[in-house]
């Protein structure tokens, strides 16, 4: 099956339209508790690697439903003003997710430069996956 647009083109388009939060700026917002970090990785990734402390786990497959107030799956955390910093492992899924949320009309949303891999590599705080995180 031939595809007309691959993931690289999708990522390139997303990156032109979204804000990428530099790691140092994200760290500062984290330390000041001035941002809501949203972990969109699969639960198995969280269990294996942990997550940013106090981050909200919103699986990529449910994100649009959790953000939309008209959805039966809506989560109150998304009613806050933000800023919201999305992250995944390598900043691919979070780039596409950030673009989707912007297209839904969500403001004050960006994604973390380099993803969780970058956060871990910088030796920043990591917590074990919590059973309930919102």
UniProtKB/TrEMBL annotation:
InterPro entries: Rhodanese-like_dom (IPR001763), Rhodanese-like_dom_sf (IPR036873). It comes from the Bacteria. Residues 31-128 form the Rhodanese domain. SUPFAM superfamilies: Rhodanese/Cell cycle control phosphatase. One of its GO terms (molecular function) is thiosulfate-cyanide sulfurtransferase activity. SMART domains: RHOD (SM00450). Pfam families: Rhodanese (PF00581). This is Rhodanese.
């Amino acid at each position: 099956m031939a595809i007309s647009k691959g993931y690289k083109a999708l990522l390139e388009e997303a990156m032109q339209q979204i804000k990428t939060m530099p790691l140092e700026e994200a760290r500062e917002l984290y330390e000041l508790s001035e941002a809501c970090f949203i972990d969109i990785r699969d639960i198995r990734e969280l269990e294996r690697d942990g997550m940013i402390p106090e981050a909200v786990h919103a699986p990529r497959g449910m994100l649009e439903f959790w953000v939309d107030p008209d959805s039966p799956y809506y989560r109150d955390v998304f009613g806050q003003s933000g800023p919201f910093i999305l992250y995944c492992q390598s900043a691919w899924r979070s780039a596409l997710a950030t673009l989707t949320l912007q297209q839904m009309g969500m403001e004050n949303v960006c994604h973390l430069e380099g993803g969780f891999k970058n956060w871990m590599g910088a030796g920043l705080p990591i917590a074990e996956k919590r059973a309930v995180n919102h």
